[in-house]
Amino acid sequence: MTAVTAAPIPVADRDPAGRPRRPRPVRGARPGWIVYACLGAVLLASLFPFYWSLLIGSGDSSTIRDAERSWIPGGNFFANAASVIGDPAVNFWPALLNSIVSSGLIAASVVFFSTLAGWAFAKLRFRGGPWLLVFVVGTMAVPTQLGVVPLYILFSELGWTGQLGAIIVPALTSAFGVFWMTQYLRQSVPDELIEAARVDGASSFRTFLTVGVPAARPAAAMLGLFTFVSAWNNFFWPFIVLDRQNPTLPVALSLLQSNYFVDYSIVLAGVLLSTIPLLLLFVFAGRQLVSGIMQGAVKG
């Protein structure tokens, strides 16, 4: 009988010590249970504040101090929510409308100007461009609190205190948004595509509309979502420049704690009400955002 011998392992499949290399993991293989366990722990930690708010917000004024409270939500959430909505000091519906309008305008403006500036820094060559980008990014290190006093003096002289424009105008641009879009467009749009558009006779702005805008959609969608959430949750500047007759939703809900006795079941019911629009936004826009990001991540 002829002896069967194993085929020698090629030199390329051996490490420097001469041992056979371990096979590399196949791309697209399913992750192990450790990954799912870590993701599950992160998910539970993220959902716990919402559950705690629901637990307290569905009880009464004594629930938060009850050491033997049940971990099952009670049945008072809708009554507490009705108390928040019906409180004349809160002005819930005008505050909700102000938050929607201001957050939407700020998100749209930041996306528009950041995409324009990001395209200029990423694909246009002009004198001082790199240093100007460094200056824009450096402004992110300046604390927001340093500009509160001059901003308030400025809007007071303009007569804008108490007006919604006082919180929209200072947030129309974002240094982070400019940096975000610059990095994305620099990596996602090849220079050859821009040269082809110029050869076809397209102007700089036409090239931006036909080449830059479609390529920037995934990053612009994420930037718009993050900006909307940040503007929605902003409390510091609106609390200073707005009054009680024309507040945003976080400022209006803070009035629930202005009394001598604070009912935390009503306060946390109001907090849950303020998060419902954000949850709806993630539910309806999440799939489109993820699909856009995946499409933008695929490179030919």
Tell me about this structure.
The chain is mostly helical. It has one domain: MetI-like (MetI-like fold, Orthogonal Bundle), CATH 1.10.3720.10. The chain has helices spanning 33-57, 77-86, 92-123, 129-138, 148-158, 165-168, 175-188, 191-199, 204-233, 236-241, 249-254, 264-297. Helix 2 packs across helix 12. The two termini are 53 Å apart. The mean pLDDT is 83. InterPro entries: MetI-like, MetI-like_sf. Its main location: membrane. It comes from Microbacterium enclense. This is Cellobiose transport system permease protein.
In the CATH hierarchy, what is the architecture at level 2?
Orthogonal Bundle
Average pLDDT rating? 83
> The biggest beta sheet, please?
none
Give the class from helix and strand content and strand pairing: mainly alpha
Q: CATH superfamily membership, which one?
A: MetI-like
The general outline is: globular
CATH topology, anyone? MetI-like fold
Radius of gyration: 27 Å
Q: In percent terms, what proportion of residues is strand?
A: under 5%
- Helical content class: 55-70%
The unreliable regions are: none
| Through-space gap between termini | 53 Å
Total number of beta strands: 0
**Highest-level CATH class:** Mainly Alpha
Q: Number of folding domains?
A: 1
Work out the helix count: 12
What letter string, H or E per element, gives the SSE order? HHHHHHHHHHHH
Protein name: Cellobiose transport system permease protein
Pfam families: BPD_transp_1 (PF00528)
Organism: Microbacterium enclense
Main location: membrane
